[in-house]
């Protein structure tokens, strides 16, 4: 159903607040803190403006580095992650009070603790679509690595509250979503504890096996319907670039798992979610320009930006800015 009605429904014509989150302490490698910089240098702001969006760059969130930050209950850098997450939440809340949609440029995936917490203050009824190779719902106790970027959802889900110790730095945070408000797409590396959590609390999860079985169109439709049968609730979309196959997103390959989403499947998810007109935030995580060579970096950045554009209204079938009409010949216009 192409045409102007659908285009007007989309929030793409509205105000986007871009927020950089240069953070990497949710895991052990350096590099993801340069994610915002390379995405900005890749022209993300201008490319969204070209779609007719009103884009305001709100700069970067301040990142806190706690000097003596010993692991707690196996979780690494808890104070650094927890205190930075609070600043992220505060900033996301501020951005969403003045804009229609926030685009968060991470950062490792622990940034979603703050982005979802902040979004939920403005949109308490939000649902979460989590596009990722990993479920990122380990509790500190189920995690092997202790890296908090594999745990963000565990801190946010109400049903898991009694399974998660209140880590130092996390005192400010209360769980703000229910397990049934989450849908995963793209999973293919799920830990035992995570699988148990998904089943015990009935989280909607489409692994790559379901993508193969039903096709991406059916999966997206089912995911949206599962978290919000009436199609009314705001959507927080969390996009880990490692959801895409590592042969594509080569600068995300630190945690790469082969057999991932194709670029076209990823585009399809973005186009369909954009079409709902209910996006309140998109966050993009785990772009690490220090992995791979220059060519890998360019490819990853270009692909990531092309996916982000589709979340904000760029469609493969073509699109035009709001108010656009076919120009008349000059002769007619000057008459
Ligand atoms: Mn992730």
TrEMBL record:
What is the official name of this protein in its record? Arginase
Q: Which reaction does it catalyse?
A: L-arginine + H2O = urea + L-ornithine
Q: How are cofactors bound according to the entry's free-text note?
A: Binds 2 manganese ions per subunit.
Which pathway does this chain act in? Answer: Nitrogen metabolism; urea cycle; L-ornithine and urea from L-arginine: step 1/1
Q: Give the required cofactors.
A: Mn(2+)
Q: Which Pfam families match?
A: Arginase (PF00491)
Where is Mn(2+) bound in this sequence? 109, 132, 134, 136, 240, 242
In terms of InterPro entries, this protein maps to:
Arginase, Ureohydrolase, Ureohydrolase_dom_sf
């Amino acid at each position: 159903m192409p045409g102007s009605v659908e285009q007007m429904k989309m929030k793409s014509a509205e105000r986007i607040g871009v927020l950089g989150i240069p953070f990497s302490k949710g895991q052990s490698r350096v590099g993801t803190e340069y994610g915002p910089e390379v995405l900005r240098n890749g022209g993300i702001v201008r490319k969204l403006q070209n779609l007719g969006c009103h884009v305001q760059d709100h700069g970067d969130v301040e990142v806190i580095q706690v000097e003596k930050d010993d692991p707690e209950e196996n979780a690494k850098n808890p104070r650094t992650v927890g205190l930075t997450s609070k600043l992220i939440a505060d900033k996301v809340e501020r951005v969403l009070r003045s804009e229609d949609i926030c685009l968060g440029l991470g950062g490792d995936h622990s940034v979603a603790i703050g982005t979802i917490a902040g979004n939920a203050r403005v949109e308490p009824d939000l649902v979460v679509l989590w596009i990722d190779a990993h479920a990122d719902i380990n509790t500190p106790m189920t995690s092997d690595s202790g890296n908090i970027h594999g745990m963000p959802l565990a801190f946010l889900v109400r049903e898991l509250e009694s399974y998660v110790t209140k880590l130092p730095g996390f005192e400010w945070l209360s769980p703000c979503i229910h397990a049934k408000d989450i849908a995963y797409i793209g999973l293919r590396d799920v830990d035992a504890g995570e699988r148990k959590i998904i089943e015990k609390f009935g989280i909607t999860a489409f692994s790559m096996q379901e993508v193969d079985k039903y096709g991406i169109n059916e999966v997206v439709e089912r995911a949206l319907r599962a978290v919000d049968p009436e199609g009314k609730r705001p959507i927080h979309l969390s996009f880990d670039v490692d959801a895409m196959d590592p042969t594509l997103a080569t600068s995300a390959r630190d945690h790469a798992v082969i057999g991932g989403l194709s670029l076209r499947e990823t585009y399809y998810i973005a186009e369909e979610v954009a079409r709902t007109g209910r996006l309140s935030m998109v966050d993009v995580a785990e772009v690490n320009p220090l992995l791979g060579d220059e060519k890998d970096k360019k490819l990853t950045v270009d692909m990531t930006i092309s996916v982000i554009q589709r979340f904000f209204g760029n469609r493969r079938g073509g699109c035009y800015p709001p108010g656009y009409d076919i120009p008349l010949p000059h002769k007619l216009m000057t008459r």
